Amino acid sequence: MAGRGYGAAQEESVFSQNEKEWLQQQKDSINENHRMMLSAMDHGNLNGAFKYAAYVADEMKTASLTPKAYYSLYIYVFDKLRDLDTYVSEQNKKGMPMQEIYERVQHAPNVLSRLYLLICVGSVYIKSNEAPTKRILKDLVEMCKGVQHPMRGLFLRYYLAQMTRDKLPDGNSTKVENGTLADSVDFVLTNFVEMNKLWVRMQYQGTTRDKTLRERERNDVRTLVGANLVNMANLDGIDERTYQTTILPGILDQVLSCHDATAQHYLMDVVINIFPCEFHLTSLDRYLAGFAKMDNAVDIEQLILNLINRLTQFCEANPSKIAVSSENESTSLFTVLSNSIADVLKTRKSTIKTKGKLGLYEALMSLVLSVYPGNVSYVDTVFEKVLTSLGELGEKSIVVDSEVKLVMGLVMNPMNKAISEYQRRAIANQATDTTPFLTTRDFLTMSNLSSMLSLLDKKHRHEAAIQMMEAFNKAPPSIDTPELLEAIFKLEAPLVFSEEEDEEAEDADFDEESFAAEQNSVSRISHMLQNDHTDSMYRLLFLARKNFGKGGLKRVRYSMTPLFFVALKLAEKIHSIESGKMESASQMESTSTTTDSSDMSGGLIISSQKVFQFLLEIIRVVGQPLPELGIKLCTQAMLCADRCKDQTNAYEYMTQACTLYEDSLSDSKSQFNALRSFIATLQRTSCIEPESYDILIKNTTQYSSKLIKRPDQARAVSLCAHMFWSDRDGVNSLHDSTRVIECLKRAGDLADKIPPQAMQATIFAEILNEHLFFIAKGIDKSPTGYIIAIITLIQQRLPTLDQDTLGPMEAYFNNTLAHINFHKKLGANPAYQEITLPH
């Protein structure tokens, strides 16, 4: 221990000029006496060797050096006394009894130097096996009591520890008379206790009156005391029982009785680091109990952190070591640690601040995630312990950045662990891996998680909700019960629910892009809803709509749309069950649970009609503030109803779309886009009766002809032709050539009235392609002459186009002519033969 690390640091130390001079003088004296000692040895003069060796050791009497400089002097003396050790060993081998040498060395006049020599000779005496080891050790450790000067006595006992550390009886000792492992433990503990007392006394004595400087000097030599415990830990044969019944109680008694914060902190930390973790696991409660009795100035939270971190690393590397203790809940590592931390925090309530408390529980959480990876209750218990320990906060929120970071870590570290494990298993495709692990779904079952988040202020609570939602999206939980759904809405409340101050702050610092990203993330909750039982699934949808509805108008465009499409799937699934295309026996086994007496009939299976009504309610909620989105949802719902052969609802959705168009759309571009949706949807529907269908397409055609802008009118009316040529099923198919031609001619008349002739060319080219489309479909009475007129008109208008428009338009027109030429040559369709192309 002497030259290990500490000695290297000493060599780099910068001493004061006076210390350098004193050290040099003492080293010169040591060198001279060492030379004389070697001379005496060469002449076989044992007494002379002892005499000059005593002069070497006498230099340790100085009181002019700081502990660092004194250590440098000690190393110098230690090296010189090695020669005496070697000489005594040689004399013994030549036949001189060690008893005689041991007695002769005690004639040195000075106590300090005599004890240094006695220890040096005593170490050789032990090796010689001429006397019981335990008797010599006891003699030496008792003799050292003759030096009570703190620093001199400390280094003397350190010398004793160094010289005997490899000579102590241990579990491998064969001669009982030399001593046992228990004798060695007793020796080391005795020396440790005396060294600690001397070290504690150093705070009252020293080369300076500055208490802070004295404390720093005392810390410079703390490793001397710890060397005893290192020797103890290195003894062969030390087991858990010896540690638990003898070593730890002896150490704790001294640590607690010294009433010195510096000593208590250092020694408890040494115990953590030098003894095997197996020992800690068997005596953890006793070790932790000592913290409550320590001086208030001891940094207990740092000690506990070090202990938890070491145990965590050990348990990660040796999972089998904690398997047995985990079976007994009351004695498991987690239970012992969590209860002990709670007791310490309760006892040291006034000295451990919020940051310290959070740091302890963050370390405990790390242990849980490493040692008990699938134990949900332990994670929730950590949250509970945190809330209990921070109960004095009352209604106050945590706002200090370092404390906020710890709270966020406590919440997000388990979630990140769950995500990484989810992704690892997904990549490895470990479907059969039965090892327990946390899932994001588990967090929805934790009763204390939302309370943890309530510790944060509004700003950080919002940030936490964003991070948690990102986590849920990376590893989507399966939400199949109302309780889980309510839980996720509670956790994501800052993102889901609207507050009045949100609206007030909107004008000042509202970031539309960030808000949209947040809401798109939250809206994915709808896709997490999963339940094979259609009644239960409807209940989840109903509950989700209720919560999303509290988000205010600015949120519904993001939240309601995904919910709407999930409900569409449910409607089709229920229709399949109703029509006998899907088995529903499992659903019939249980009785439907009602959500609200006014909305759900208890004991009845939810019908597709009920879900279609649910969809209509969403459309009404969304359509009022967002008519364009409402119309899109109407058309999607209409297509779904059409697939389910539900004529009533299909017609109802289209009627609702028309109402939104008439009442809420005023922008020409929005109207045109809405009409395109109308036309595309109506052209694909097949379940609506011809009479009803005729009403809808007439309304759409009228809307098209009333658009404000002539180009939009012409385009919309030309698109209306598709509604009269629909490949609907069987009887309801519609192929009305006359109405198609009327729409296209009407579109041409409207295009002819567009003021800028350059625009006319583009519109007529589109109308021309619509004619060709219907010719390909087999329309009767194709207006060949009209088509030729359109081609001629386009050729006349091309020169009026500007350079930017001419290129694309000319390419479009030439491709159209090439298409006509191809079909003329192909000869499959007679209608193409009647079209005469200009040369």
Automatic annotation (TrEMBL):
<feature type="compositionally biased region" description="Low complexity">
    <location>
        <begin position="590"/>
        <end position="599"/>
    </location>
</feature>
<dbReference type="InterPro" id="IPR005378">
    <property type="entry name" value="Vps35"/>
</dbReference>
<keyword id="KW-0653">Protein transport</keyword>
<protein>
    <recommendedName>
        <fullName>Vacuolar protein sorting-associated protein 35</fullName>
    </recommendedName>
</protein>
<feature type="region of interest" description="Disordered">
    <location>
        <begin position="581"/>
        <end position="600"/>
    </location>
</feature>
<comment type="function">
    <text>Plays a role in vesicular protein sorting.</text>
</comment>
<comment type="similarity">
    <text>Belongs to the VPS35 family.</text>
</comment>
<dbReference type="Pfam" id="PF03635">
    <property type="entry name" value="Vps35"/>
</dbReference>
<keyword id="KW-0813">Transport</keyword>
<dbReference type="InterPro" id="IPR042491">
    <property type="entry name" value="Vps35_C"/>
</dbReference>
<keyword id="KW-0472">Membrane</keyword>
